[in-house]
Amino acid sequence: MTKSNHRESDYPIDPMFLDRWSPRAFTGEIIEEAQLLGLLDAAHWAPSSANHQPWRFIYGLKGSEHWEIFVALLNDSNQEWARNASALIFVVSRAFTGAAGSTEEKPSYTHSFDAGAAWGHLAIQARLSGLYAHGMGGIKHEEIRQAFAIPEGYRVEAGVAIGRLADKSVLSERNQAREFPSQRKPLSEVAFNGRFVAN
């Protein structure tokens, strides 16, 4: 059994997995590009099918000329708090293997799965670096595609806010009520020995 961060696992896992969570309260401080690139470097060492490495990261740093563009590409409810992050990232995956337009181009079944593994690496490295990462599905997918001229064959997966943890008092009342490390379903509801359970 492992306990940390007001969370508990029935198994002896590393406390880092309990310490990682997705806060909304960020200090808004500027971070160096090199620090963000360290997180992205950890992400790009994630496992991938046949080593195709389908993940792509588009990032903007707070204080840069691109910042407000990145913020505007989030859904309104996420703009409210994510504008206080230190960096915003859009995760894109390449949905095919081989050279584009060539006879070697083939659909990749695992591109989203692999990009998710990269996001997991990023989130853990953020925590190890004294930062927090909050993944978001609430982004303007089609507008992101247009803003960055992302061609067909690439999928806009998610957004990520990176920053240092602030007191929850910086958030709206609604978000203050949500600002705590979430729990997980019992493992028995998601892992099945020799069978599948639709639930």
UniProtKB/TrEMBL annotation:
Keyword entries, A-Z: Oxidoreductase
Entry keyword Oxidoreductase: yes
Pfam families per UniProt: Nitroreductase
Record GO terms (molecular function): oxidoreductase activity
InterPro entries from the UniProt entry: Nitroreductase, Nitroreductase-like
The Nitroreductase domain, residue ranges: 19-58, 75-164
Region forming the signal peptide: none
Superkingdom as given in the UniProt entry: Bacteria
Name recorded for this polypeptide: Nitroreductase
Family designation: Belongs to the nitroreductase family.
Keyword Oxidoreductase: yes
